[in-house]
Design a protein that fits this description.
Number of helices: 5
Helix content: over 70%
Radius of gyration: 16 Å
Number of strands: 0
Largest sheet: none
Order of helices and strands: HHHHH
Number of domains: 1
Oligomer: single chain
Structural class: mainly alpha
């Protein structure tokens, strides 16, 4: 199998894993996607983070739509979080290039660790 075809398969598998995680938990697919994009798909860390955002946005929209059609999403409750998330995304996007990869990886690891501890307890 050619290297390009192999990467395409890994991209699809990584996207599928992110979609399953988003579907199960309503988010968090990026925690699966970033390591797969960086490790198995060979993207550098910055591209893996940025690509993850581009992939996760429509996956989150799809998951939200499914929850909404099932009557499990309260849009009035979600709007303040959306507003804060938009501001946070803008600030994070601006700071992204200024922060070293070491600190980005550490921050990502702490986020995953925090989520794991919270889920376990």
């Amino acid at each position: 199998m050619s290297e390009k075809k192999s990467k395409t398969i890994w991209y699809a598998l990584a996207g599928g894993a992110a979609g399953v995680v988003n579907g199960f938990f309503g988010g968090g697919g990026g925690q699966v996607l970033v390591p797969l994009l960086a490790g198995k798909c060979g993207l550098d860390q910055r591209k893996a983070f940025a690509t993850s955002v581009a992939v996760i946005a429509p996956l989150c929209a799809l998951s939200a739509g499914i929850y909404w059609f099932r009557g499990q999403l309260d849009l009035a409750l979600a709007l303040p979080y959306l507003a804060g998330g938009l501001v946070g995304g803008l600030v994070g996007g601006k700071l992204f290039q200024k922060i070293s990869m070491v600190w980005l990886r550490r921050g990502f690891a702490l986020l995953i660790l925090y989520g794991g501890v919270r889920a376990f307890l």
